[in-house]
Amino acid sequence: MSNTPRLTSLDALHRSLGATMTDFAGWDMPLRYGSERDEHNAVRTRAGIFDLSHMGEITVTGAEAMKALNYALVGNIATIGVGRARYTMICQEDGGIVDDLIVYRLGEDEYMVVANAGNAQIVLDAITERAAGFDAEVRDDRDAYALIAVQGPESPGILKSVTDADLDGLKYYAGLPGTVAGVPALIARTGYTGEDGFELFVAPEHAEQLWRALTEAGQDAGLVPCGLSCRDTLRLEAGMPLYGHELTTALTPFDAGLGRVVKFEKDGDFVGRTALEAAAAKAETDPPRKLVGLIAEGRRVPRAGFSVVAGGEVVGEVTSGAPSPTLGKPIAIAYVDAALAAPGTAGVGIDIRGTHEPYEVVALPFYKRQK
């Protein structure tokens, strides 16, 4: 395994746009093109375009593809209609979260699982191993797709101008094949920004043509290229978890407040069921720490790993923190003791390099778009 970062098919384009590049999960990715704040605000008020080609696509096909995924993942794959998508997770036997995923049902016996870049190989290996007893084929499709996202309130209008696909009929968490700017694509109404938007899965050789066409189509609407930095502040404001921060193998979905993704009522066994049943019962009677939002009263920015304090005691830990362009204040997501998790709880702070900075406990998300 070489240490040379992988390049997306848009690499040269990003550099020509003056992007600041960074190594992310073994990929060279654009961190920002100009001002992170401007990119963030463009997505909230107009539109932004992202290269997400580092995400890991895994295709599962065959007569028992659904059964194989039902066993491998915690969600009920049987209830996903053709052309729809579902947010779910893959867990260890002990209930720890291996990754959070989106599963698209592309056909009667065809599914595409999209994993986080840093976990793609681990997820591929786990699904391959778990599907071994089923009449199903697991295919590594990471090199078969580039992924371009257009996110923000202007995104439907921009996309409509370059496709004749029925975007109005495309619900949130649905996907349909279509042609965008002359390029065959899977058009999904999904995203990680808290805004309306689309993710377009295309062949890598078509990525540049598509990016340029979308950029041109979005010029008058104020579309700007966006990097991973604003993707992080957008998902943070929207209260969306990031693997390695809010989600880890040390936590079950119930610890993360996402127990709703585990479907015990589905047919057949699934990996982690016994441990997750115990975790569900424990969460009811003796909740561990809870995931909450924290809004700063001051200006100092908290970071992952900082301690949450109350009454001189450590009562939790920050998992993500950043200045919020939308709120105009620093914000954080943190796991805190259940007794202090209620919105408005007084006396909670974050230890920022030895100083206890006051923070307000709020319910997630920090930001919800007006529909």
Name a few traits of the molecule.
single chain, 371 residues, alpha+beta, six-stranded mixed sheet, six-stranded antiparallel β-barrel, 20 strands, globular
**SSE run:** EHEEHEEHEEEHEEHEEEHEHHEEEEEE
- Give the count of helical stretches: 8
Query: Average pLDDT, to the nearest integer?
Result: 97
Report the sheet-strand fraction: 25-35%
Q: How do the strands line up in the largest sheet?
A: 11-12-13-10-4-14
- Large-scale geometry: globular
Residue runs with pLDDT of under 50 for 5 or more positions:
none
> From the helix content, strand content and strand pairing, which structural class follows?
alpha+beta
Could you give a short account of the major beta sheet?
A: 6 strands, mixed
The number of distinct β-strands equals 20
Report, as a whole number of angstroms, the end-to-end distance: 46 Å
